[in-house]
Write a structure and sequence with these properties.
- One of its GO terms (molecular function) is isomerase activity.
- Helix content is about 40%, strand content about 15%.
- It has twelve helices and eight strands.
- It has an eight-stranded parallel beta barrel, surrounded by four helices.
- β1, α1 and β2 form a beta-alpha-beta unit.
- The N and C termini lie close together (about 5 Å).
Length: about 280
Protein backbone atom coordinates (compact mmCIF):
# COMPACT_ATOMS: atom_id res chain seq x y z
CA UNK A 1 0.00 0.00 0.00
CA UNK A 2 1.14 3.50 -0.84
CA UNK A 3 -0.13 5.97 1.74
CA UNK A 4 -0.28 9.75 1.33
CA UNK A 5 -0.95 12.80 3.42
CA UNK A 6 -3.39 15.38 1.99
CA UNK A 7 -2.16 18.95 1.95
CA UNK A 8 -5.79 20.00 2.45
CA UNK A 9 -5.47 18.67 6.01
CA UNK A 10 -3.16 21.62 6.69
CA UNK A 11 -5.38 24.25 5.06
CA UNK A 12 -5.62 26.28 8.31
CA UNK A 13 -2.03 25.76 9.43
CA UNK A 14 1.07 27.86 8.84
CA UNK A 15 3.29 25.09 7.44
CA UNK A 16 5.39 25.31 4.29
CA UNK A 17 5.38 22.57 1.64
CA UNK A 18 8.95 21.83 2.76
CA UNK A 19 7.74 21.16 6.30
CA UNK A 20 4.92 18.95 5.05
CA UNK A 21 7.27 16.90 2.89
CA UNK A 22 9.66 16.48 5.83
CA UNK A 23 6.78 15.38 8.05
CA UNK A 24 5.48 12.89 5.46
CA UNK A 25 8.94 11.40 5.01
CA UNK A 26 9.59 11.16 8.75
CA UNK A 27 6.28 9.41 9.43
CA UNK A 28 6.73 6.79 6.72
CA UNK A 29 4.30 8.06 4.10
CA UNK A 30 5.04 7.33 0.45
CA UNK A 31 3.24 10.25 -1.11
CA UNK A 32 1.50 13.60 -0.98
CA UNK A 33 -1.98 14.32 -2.31
CA UNK A 34 -1.69 17.91 -3.43
CA UNK A 35 -4.73 20.18 -3.15
CA UNK A 36 -5.27 22.03 -6.41
CA UNK A 37 -5.14 25.51 -4.88
CA UNK A 38 -1.81 24.65 -3.24
CA UNK A 39 -0.38 23.49 -6.57
CA UNK A 40 -1.61 26.68 -8.23
CA UNK A 41 -0.09 28.88 -5.53
CA UNK A 42 3.27 27.14 -5.99
CA UNK A 43 3.12 27.39 -9.79
CA UNK A 44 5.52 30.32 -10.06
CA UNK A 45 8.12 28.78 -7.77
CA UNK A 46 9.85 26.38 -10.13
CA UNK A 47 11.93 24.88 -7.34
CA UNK A 48 8.92 22.73 -6.43
CA UNK A 49 7.71 19.75 -8.41
CA UNK A 50 8.22 16.02 -8.88
CA UNK A 51 12.04 16.10 -8.70
CA UNK A 52 11.97 18.14 -5.51
CA UNK A 53 9.47 15.76 -3.90
CA UNK A 54 11.54 12.76 -4.97
CA UNK A 55 14.39 14.13 -2.88
CA UNK A 56 12.23 13.25 0.13
CA UNK A 57 11.54 9.76 -1.28
CA UNK A 58 7.96 10.86 -1.90
CA UNK A 59 5.71 11.09 -4.94
CA UNK A 60 2.58 13.06 -5.74
CA UNK A 61 -0.24 10.55 -5.51
CA UNK A 62 -2.99 12.82 -6.85
CA UNK A 63 -3.89 16.42 -7.65
CA UNK A 64 -7.27 17.14 -6.02
CA UNK A 65 -9.41 19.91 -7.43
CA UNK A 66 -12.96 20.81 -8.46
CA UNK A 67 -13.36 21.18 -12.21
CA UNK A 68 -16.18 23.63 -13.09
CA UNK A 69 -18.54 21.33 -14.99
CA UNK A 70 -21.20 24.04 -14.96
CA UNK A 71 -18.99 26.69 -16.59
CA UNK A 72 -18.64 27.36 -20.30
CA UNK A 73 -16.77 24.70 -22.25
CA UNK A 74 -13.93 27.18 -22.87
CA UNK A 75 -13.54 28.00 -19.18
CA UNK A 76 -13.80 24.37 -18.12
CA UNK A 77 -11.18 23.24 -20.62
CA UNK A 78 -8.87 26.10 -19.69
CA UNK A 79 -9.00 24.91 -16.09
CA UNK A 80 -8.45 21.32 -17.22
CA UNK A 81 -5.39 22.39 -19.16
CA UNK A 82 -4.00 24.17 -16.09
CA UNK A 83 -4.52 21.11 -13.90
CA UNK A 84 -3.06 18.78 -16.52
CA UNK A 85 0.10 20.89 -16.70
CA UNK A 86 0.39 21.04 -12.91
CA UNK A 87 -0.15 17.28 -12.62
CA UNK A 88 2.62 16.70 -15.16
CA UNK A 89 4.96 19.01 -13.25
CA UNK A 90 4.28 17.18 -10.00
CA UNK A 91 4.62 13.75 -11.57
CA UNK A 92 1.10 12.41 -11.09
CA UNK A 93 -1.37 11.16 -13.68
CA UNK A 94 -4.42 11.44 -11.41
CA UNK A 95 -6.68 14.50 -11.19
CA UNK A 96 -9.60 14.36 -8.74
CA UNK A 97 -12.90 16.19 -9.21
CA UNK A 98 -16.57 16.00 -8.17
CA UNK A 99 -19.39 14.88 -10.46
CA UNK A 100 -21.57 17.97 -10.24
CA UNK A 101 -23.03 19.82 -7.29
CA UNK A 102 -26.37 18.01 -6.81
CA UNK A 103 -27.25 14.59 -5.48
CA UNK A 104 -28.26 11.88 -7.94
CA UNK A 105 -31.92 11.87 -6.82
CA UNK A 106 -32.15 15.66 -7.25
CA UNK A 107 -30.59 15.69 -10.72
CA UNK A 108 -33.02 15.45 -13.61
CA UNK A 109 -32.38 13.65 -16.90
CA UNK A 110 -31.22 16.72 -18.81
CA UNK A 111 -28.89 17.81 -16.00
CA UNK A 112 -27.39 14.35 -15.78
CA UNK A 113 -26.84 14.19 -19.52
CA UNK A 114 -25.07 17.57 -19.38
CA UNK A 115 -22.70 16.35 -16.67
CA UNK A 116 -22.05 13.12 -18.57
CA UNK A 117 -21.22 15.14 -21.69
CA UNK A 118 -18.77 17.33 -19.76
CA UNK A 119 -17.10 14.32 -18.14
CA UNK A 120 -16.75 12.73 -21.57
CA UNK A 121 -14.96 15.85 -22.85
CA UNK A 122 -12.68 15.92 -19.85
CA UNK A 123 -11.96 12.19 -19.98
CA UNK A 124 -11.03 12.49 -23.65
CA UNK A 125 -8.74 15.43 -22.86
CA UNK A 126 -6.97 13.87 -19.89
CA UNK A 127 -6.79 10.50 -21.61
CA UNK A 128 -4.98 12.11 -24.53
CA UNK A 129 -2.39 13.35 -22.01
CA UNK A 130 -1.91 9.92 -20.45
CA UNK A 131 -3.77 11.07 -17.34
CA UNK A 132 -6.86 9.94 -15.45
CA UNK A 133 -9.85 11.89 -14.17
CA UNK A 134 -11.09 10.55 -10.84
CA UNK A 135 -14.63 11.30 -9.66
CA UNK A 136 -14.89 11.09 -5.90
CA UNK A 137 -17.71 9.23 -4.20
CA UNK A 138 -19.25 12.15 -2.35
CA UNK A 139 -22.65 13.41 -1.10
CA UNK A 140 -24.51 15.95 -3.24
CA UNK A 141 -22.90 14.73 -6.46
CA UNK A 142 -23.81 12.08 -9.04
CA UNK A 143 -21.51 9.68 -7.21
CA UNK A 144 -23.38 9.90 -3.91
CA UNK A 145 -24.23 6.19 -4.01
CA UNK A 146 -22.87 3.04 -5.63
CA UNK A 147 -25.57 2.51 -8.24
CA UNK A 148 -25.37 6.06 -9.56
CA UNK A 149 -21.57 5.87 -9.65
CA UNK A 150 -21.63 2.65 -11.67
CA UNK A 151 -24.24 4.17 -13.97
CA UNK A 152 -22.09 7.26 -14.48
CA UNK A 153 -19.07 5.16 -15.42
CA UNK A 154 -21.18 3.30 -17.97
CA UNK A 155 -22.65 6.52 -19.37
CA UNK A 156 -19.30 8.27 -19.80
CA UNK A 157 -17.74 5.04 -21.09
CA UNK A 158 -14.14 6.20 -21.23
CA UNK A 159 -11.08 4.41 -19.78
CA UNK A 160 -9.63 7.68 -18.46
CA UNK A 161 -12.56 8.12 -16.06
CA UNK A 162 -11.80 6.44 -12.74
CA UNK A 163 -13.03 6.59 -9.14
CA UNK A 164 -11.62 8.00 -5.94
CA UNK A 165 -13.34 5.70 -3.45
CA UNK A 166 -14.06 7.65 -0.26
CA UNK A 167 -14.79 4.88 2.23
CA UNK A 168 -16.65 7.04 4.72
CA UNK A 169 -18.96 8.59 2.13
CA UNK A 170 -19.78 5.17 0.67
CA UNK A 171 -20.69 4.05 4.18
CA UNK A 172 -22.69 7.26 4.61
CA UNK A 173 -24.79 6.36 1.56
CA UNK A 174 -26.07 3.26 3.34
CA UNK A 175 -23.99 0.46 1.83
CA UNK A 176 -21.22 -1.57 3.43
CA UNK A 177 -17.93 -0.36 1.90
CA UNK A 178 -16.79 -3.97 1.60
CA UNK A 179 -19.83 -4.86 -0.50
CA UNK A 180 -19.32 -1.70 -2.57
CA UNK A 181 -15.65 -2.27 -3.34
CA UNK A 182 -16.40 -5.80 -4.51
CA UNK A 183 -18.59 -4.31 -7.25
CA UNK A 184 -16.58 -1.27 -8.26
CA UNK A 185 -12.95 -2.18 -7.61
CA UNK A 186 -11.96 -2.48 -11.31
CA UNK A 187 -12.65 1.28 -11.65
CA UNK A 188 -10.96 2.46 -8.44
CA UNK A 189 -7.59 4.21 -8.67
CA UNK A 190 -7.42 5.84 -5.24
CA UNK A 191 -8.96 5.75 -1.75
CA UNK A 192 -9.73 8.37 0.86
CA UNK A 193 -9.62 7.14 4.45
CA UNK A 194 -11.31 9.06 7.28
CA UNK A 195 -13.77 8.20 10.03
CA UNK A 196 -16.58 9.53 12.24
CA UNK A 197 -17.77 8.64 15.72
CA UNK A 198 -21.40 8.13 14.67
CA UNK A 199 -23.70 8.52 11.69
CA UNK A 200 -25.59 11.45 13.20
CA UNK A 201 -22.39 13.55 13.21
CA UNK A 202 -21.69 13.32 9.48
CA UNK A 203 -22.78 16.90 8.91
CA UNK A 204 -19.33 18.02 10.14
CA UNK A 205 -18.05 17.02 6.69
CA UNK A 206 -20.42 19.36 4.84
CA UNK A 207 -18.27 21.78 2.78
CA UNK A 208 -19.55 24.97 4.43
CA UNK A 209 -18.43 23.55 7.79
CA UNK A 210 -15.32 21.51 7.04
CA UNK A 211 -13.63 24.27 5.03
CA UNK A 212 -14.39 26.94 7.65
CA UNK A 213 -11.61 27.73 10.10
CA UNK A 214 -14.18 28.07 12.90
CA UNK A 215 -16.25 25.05 11.82
CA UNK A 216 -17.15 22.24 14.20
CA UNK A 217 -14.87 19.19 14.31
CA UNK A 218 -17.07 17.24 16.71
CA UNK A 219 -17.24 13.56 15.82
CA UNK A 220 -14.05 13.44 13.76
CA UNK A 221 -11.99 10.59 15.18
CA UNK A 222 -8.82 8.64 14.35
CA UNK A 223 -9.19 6.04 11.63
CA UNK A 224 -9.57 2.96 13.82
CA UNK A 225 -11.75 4.55 16.52
CA UNK A 226 -14.88 5.35 14.51
CA UNK A 227 -18.05 3.83 13.12
CA UNK A 228 -16.47 2.57 9.88
CA UNK A 229 -14.60 -0.72 10.33
CA UNK A 230 -11.29 -0.06 8.59
CA UNK A 231 -9.67 -3.29 9.77
CA UNK A 232 -12.36 -5.19 7.89
CA UNK A 233 -12.01 -2.93 4.86
CA UNK A 234 -8.22 -3.23 4.68
CA UNK A 235 -8.55 -6.99 4.84
CA UNK A 236 -10.97 -6.85 1.91
CA UNK A 237 -8.75 -4.74 -0.35
CA UNK A 238 -5.62 -6.72 0.46
CA UNK A 239 -6.19 -8.77 -2.71
CA UNK A 240 -5.96 -5.70 -4.96
CA UNK A 241 -2.75 -5.47 -6.98
CA UNK A 242 -2.15 -1.80 -6.25
CA UNK A 243 -3.63 0.19 -3.38
CA UNK A 244 -3.02 3.93 -3.16
CA UNK A 245 -4.78 5.82 -0.38
CA UNK A 246 -4.72 9.17 1.39
CA UNK A 247 -5.43 9.86 5.03
CA UNK A 248 -7.89 12.74 4.88
CA UNK A 249 -7.95 14.34 8.32
CA UNK A 250 -9.88 17.56 8.91
CA UNK A 251 -9.77 17.72 12.70
CA UNK A 252 -7.32 19.12 15.28
CA UNK A 253 -3.84 17.83 16.15
CA UNK A 254 -3.18 17.03 12.51
CA UNK A 255 0.37 15.77 12.76
CA UNK A 256 -0.30 13.60 15.81
CA UNK A 257 -3.39 11.98 14.30
CA UNK A 258 -1.81 11.37 10.89
CA UNK A 259 1.28 9.85 12.50
CA UNK A 260 -0.86 7.58 14.67
CA UNK A 261 -3.15 6.49 11.85
CA UNK A 262 -0.35 5.86 9.39
CA UNK A 263 1.48 3.66 11.90
CA UNK A 264 -1.67 1.62 12.55
CA UNK A 265 -2.34 1.24 8.82
CA UNK A 266 1.23 0.01 8.31
CA UNK A 267 0.92 -2.41 11.23
CA UNK A 268 -2.27 -3.90 9.80
CA UNK A 269 -0.74 -4.03 6.32
CA UNK A 270 1.98 -6.30 7.69
CA UNK A 271 -0.72 -8.95 8.12
CA UNK A 272 -1.35 -8.94 4.36
CA UNK A 273 1.76 -9.53 2.22
CA UNK A 274 0.10 -8.13 -0.93
CA UNK A 275 -0.46 -4.77 0.80
CA UNK A 276 2.95 -4.74 2.45
CA UNK A 277 4.82 -5.37 -0.80
CA UNK A 278 3.43 -2.28 -2.58
Amino acid sequence: MKLSICTISFRHHLYSIDQLAHFAQTEGFQGVELWGVHAKNLANDFHYGADWLTSYNLETSMLSDYLPLEASVADMMAEANTLSSLAYRWGTNKIRTFAGKKGSLNTNKDEREAIVSRLQMLSEFFGSKGQYLLVETHPNTLTDNLDSTLQLLEEVDHPALRVNFDVLHIWESGIDPVAAIRKIHPFVSHFHFKNIASHNQLDVFEPNNVYAAAGSREGMVPLFEGAVDYKKFLAEISYMKEVEASLEWFGPNVKDILAKDSKEVRDISLLYPSLNEQ
